[in-house]
Design goal:
Helix content: 25-40%
Structural class: alpha/beta
Largest sheet: 8 strands, parallel, barrel
Family: Belongs to the glycosyl hydrolase 5 (cellulase A) family.
Enzyme class: hydrolase
Oligomer: single chain
Shape: elongated
CATH class of the largest domain: Alpha Beta
Number of domains: 2
Pfam families: Cellulase (PF00150)
Protein name: Endoglucanase
Strand order of the largest sheet: 1-2-3-4-5-6-7-8
GO molecular function, one term: cellulase activity
Length: about 500
């Protein structure tokens, strides 16, 4: 039987010890803050602003964020509701903001002050009032923080959209002018209209002589995947079961990031991907695959990023368990999550809730490889911290099922169970452009090999997460279902990690 401490360590290492990023550098002196690298959005929807006694986010979380491998936080400030009739910010709200900024700086984090009242600026009837309030906000905040260290960064307005689109360059200019009166060298984050869409980067009009601007974009593509089941989006709230990870999906991601990089190079501007994330309803396995791919694509092009978000939804920190949602943390900061796992206390390991949802044994030795023209051996593997299975395939076969890797499931499955499968795999080739799509499925282990959950995954030359998920249409007894990866038409060596199969798993 797999003990809890072994599983917690293995899961923490395995969920995403992907070699997709370099560690963020240590914070330099406050008056020479480094580029923004890895961050997280915080406190936008926390009751601390109105009922401090009910605050979920605490000052200690700033140190936890820093220790977790992040170098900045993006404070989402819904400030308009805290202004009086003369647009003055309340003393209590400013006190709370000061305390958050102070806690972030003391933890060694850079702090972005993001004015987040985008909804209040989207309607034609509200745009004039929005402009008045936004200028009033920056007059007060710019003056208040004019002597703050360079680690404090301003962001003029989150996701301008709707009525703000037509006048966004004017709004940007008038508020930047206010900021520059008292903060001539402060770094300021600005983004394009239409929800900070990369499609509208060319519409930005920035002062050429101001080189202390950081350009941001937000990335939730495809929305059908990242926002499936979102209650606030009528077009997506009834969607479910949308997956991500095909060759076309990955090519779209790379092309999008290349477009941003081309714009940044031409404009000579640093880039911050200020928001990205996939909602819990997408399923943990699929969220891990998407999150790791997006973060890695940004980092490989030199972009900083801020994950959406610490708490509330798209959750990175489990408030109830008082710790990271390990799969998502591992997807974002793989080397930090892996390094922390061996040092975790026995109590922390035993509290890992994922163990209760695992229905297989996550060891590479559980794979059985069948078919003619193949051989396999264990090799060192970063995905598990121990070993992977290298499957040598001499040639392509007529059928995908002619060669495969199969791992048994010990747990039973009931009708309606939500199943998630994740492993790590790559093609063992020096060809950076190599990619192959293969079937991955949970299926009955005897004829007619009924599929319980099925999908396709993309293998490339880079060790990446592969995942499928779905809902069982009927019940199956324990020991009757296998995980299968069909490799008959790959025709080249494959490296495969231990698999993880979870039933009805959702962080608390």
């Amino acid at each position: 039987m797999l003990d809890r401490s072994h599983f917690a360590r293995l899961l923490s290492l395995s969920w995403l010890a992907l070699c997709l990023a370099v560690p963020a550098p240590a914070l330099a002196q406050a008056d020479a803050a480094p580029a923004l690298k890895r961050g997280v959005n915080i406190v936008g929807y926390d009751p601390l602003w109105t009922e401090p006694a009910k605050a979920r986010f605490q000052p200690r979380h700033m140190q936890a964020i820093r220790d977790g491998g992040f170098d900045h936080v993006r404070l989402n400030l819904h400030a308009f509701a805290h202004m009086d009739g003369e647009q003055r910010l309340s003393a209590q709200w400013l006190k709370t903001l000061d305390e958050l900024v102070d806690a972030g700086l003391k933890a060694g984090l850079q702090v972005i002050l993001d004015e987040h009242n985008f909804n209040e600026c989207a309607k034609p009837a509200d745009i004039d009032a929005c402009r008045v309030r936004l200028k009033a906000f920056w007059r007060q905040i710019a003056t208040r923080y004019k002597s703050a260290p360079d680690a404090v960064v301003f962001e003029i307005l989150n996701e301008p959209n709707g009525a703000a689109d037509a006048v966004w360059n004017d709004m940007l200019a008038e508020n930047l002018a206010i900021i520059r009166e008292s903060n001539p060298t402060r770094r300021v984050v600005v983004g394009p209209k239409f929800w900070n869409s990369l499609d509208h980067l060319d519409s930005l009009r920035l002062p050429e002589g101001d080189r202390r601007l950081i350009v941001t974009f937000h990335y939730y593509t495809p929305m059908e995947f990242t926002h499936q089941g979102a209650s606030w989006t009528p077009q997506f709230q009834k969607l479910s079961g949308v997956t991500w990870g095909s060759i076309a999906d990955r090519e779209k991601l790379q092309k999008d990031m290349d477009r941003v990089k081309a714009w940044a190079d031409k404009a000579g501007r640093p880039i911050l991907m200020g928001e990205f994330g996939a909602l819990e309803s997408a399923g943990m396995a699929q969220r891990v695959v998407w999150t790791s791919a997006v973060a890695g694509a940004a980092e490989s092009r030199g972009f900083g990023w801020s994950y959406w978000q610490f708490d509330s939804d798209f959750v990175l920190w489990d408030m109830k368990a008082d710790g990271w949602v390990k799969p998502i943390h591992g997807a974002l900061v793989p080397e930090k999550a892996a390094a922390a796992a061996p040092a975790a206390s026995a109590a922390a390991r035993q509290s890992d809730p994922a163990l209760d949802y695992l229905i297989n044994t996550p060891r590479v030795t559980t794979w059985s490889v069948y078919g003619d023209g193949q051989s396999s051996q264990q090799v060192p593997c970063a995905a598990t911290g121990k070993v992977c299975l290298r499957i040598a395939l001499a040639s392509s076969k007529p059928n995908v099922w002619d060669i495969g890797a199969v791992a048994p499931l010990q747990g039973s499955i009931s009708k309606g169970d939500k199943l998630q499968v994740v492993a790590w795999a790559r093609l063992d080739t020096e060809d950076a452009k190599a990619q192959v799509v293969v079937p991955m499925l949970l299926q009955v282990g005897a004829p007619p090999y009924t599929a319980v959950v099925s999908g396709s995954v993309t293998l490339t030359s880079k060790l990446e997460a592969i995942a499928i998920g779905g809902v069982a249409a009927e019940s199956f007894a324990g020991g009757t279902v296998n995980l299968a990866l069909q490799l008959g038409q790959v025709g080249q060596p494959v490296v495969l990690s231990a698999p993880f199969v979870l039933k009805n798993y959702k962080p608390q």
